[in-house]
Write a structure and sequence with these properties.
This protein is an alpha+beta fold. Helices cover 23% and strands 35% of the residues. It has three domains: 133 residues, no CATH class; 126 residues, no CATH class; 67 residues, Alpha-Beta Plaits, CATH 3.30.70.
């Protein structure tokens, strides 16, 4: 049973460090083949973001306070004028059932007029809630300023409310809602995919070894000179001329299995939570780190193996690593044959090092050149 006096940071650090050890063990396993569609994308086949400004009406007194959001009043007056309603200049509108919102959506590749999109509606004023509101007709524009979709519909706002003994609690905020199929595409985005007999694959991450393996796999499956690498990210692929044949070819191309090249060793540190994540086993060189009452010494000693007399063998010099970790003069953790970061993390966790101690020690190892990995702090 866990001691109730055990602090929450230490328990969280223990769980996160064991997770880091598990990630290191899994990363050391042989690489598996992935589908090409998970490693690369086709140039020109992409999504486009849309944005629009609109009004949500029908709120139950939870809309914008017009004294603090004058743009809501201006939007209502402009909308009424477009509908043929002219208000006297001295009219003071007190709108409690209206909220100014921003509408966002993602236009997928090859979307055609008449198709529908899901949209997200977010309050930009001080409305307390958008629940029960209706979004009025809102044009959605792309980065070029052109209108690509029109949005309208009733909002669905999530959230659970509870009250007890006069107090209220709200789970999830109510200033954002979604409308399923709330926008209709009005304009298609031109695509250059169907022009010519050449496409370009773009790897998700630039890697020369992976690009070379992709080219070899494509040429082996579809014939020589079908693919050629332009650099560590872009690969040119020759496709059939006809659109139907091209679509079938790309379908087979995306399903092709490729074993990616081994990625660079990386250690990711979360300074807020103290979590440590490794994408593969990370090697360490000799170093000595002192941090408060903690000291870490990593040393490599040569081991000489001599053959028996008259055996015609050769003398072999091999290196072994030894890690000494001390928290106080009476507590020493000695690890032999330890050459990866997982052993250091495990040993530090065994003597009760905090996440802040671990972050400081890893940063010192990286600065000293002992940590053979890219160190990323988030």
């Amino acid at each position: 049973m866990m001691n109730k006096h055990t602090s929450m940071p230490k328990r969280l650090a223990r769980r996160l460090l064991w997770a880091a050890l598990a990630m290191g063990c899994l990363a050391a396993a042989p690489a598996q083949a992935d589908r090409l569609k998970d490693l690369a994308s086709i140039q020109g086949v992409r999504q486009n973001q849309l944005i629009g400004y609109g009004l949500v009406v029908g709120l139950d007194g939870s809309g914008d306070q017009t004294t603090q959001t004058p743009f809501t009043v201006q939007s209502v007056i402009a909308m009424l004028q477009n509908l043929g309603v002219n208000l006297p200049p001295s009219t003071s509108l007190q709108l409690k059932n209206v909220a100014a919102v921003m509408v966002t959506a993602t236009l997928p590749a090859f979307a055609q007029p008449g198709q529908t999109l899901d949209i997200t509606v977010s309050s930009m004023g001080n409305a307390k809630s958008l629940r029960g509101g209706t979004l009025l007709l809102t044009p959605l524009k792309g980065a070029d300023g052109q209108i690509y979709a029109m949005a309208q519909g009733n909002l669905l706002v999530g959230g659970v409310g509870a009250s007890a003994n006069g107090s209220k609690a709200q789970v999830n905020h109510l200033s954002v809602g979604r409308i399923s199929a709330g926008a209709t595409v009005e304009r298609a985005v031109a695509s250059a995919l169907g022009q010519g007999n050449m496409i370009q694959l773009e790897l998700n991450e630039s890697d020369f070894s992976t690009a070379s393996r992709v080219v070899d796999a494509i040429n082996k499956r579809f014939g020589p000179e079908t693919a050629a690498a332009q650099d560590g990210r872009v690969i040119r692929v020759r496709t059939p001329e006809g659109s139907d044949e091209r679509v079938a070819f790309l379908g087979n191309l995306e399903s092709l299995n490729v074993t990616p090249g081994q990625t660079n060793a990386k250690v990711i540190l979360n300074a807020r939570t103290g979590s440590v994540v490794m994408n593969q086993a990370v090697t360490l060189d000799s170093c000595a780190v002192s941090h408060g009452n903690l000291s870490v010494v990593i040393s490599s000693e040569p081991v000489i193996s001599q053959p028996q007399p008259l055996s015609n063998g050769q003398t072999v010099v091999a290196g072994t690593s030894q890690i000494d970790i001390k928290k106080d003069p009476g507590q020493v953790v000695l690890l032999k044959q330890a050459t990866n970061l997982a052993d250091v993390v495990k040993a530090l966790n065994a003597i009760g090092a905090t996440p802040q101690d671990l972050l400081a020690i890893l940063q010192a190892m990286k600065a000293a050149g002992s940590l053979r990995a890219e160190l990323e702090i988030i």
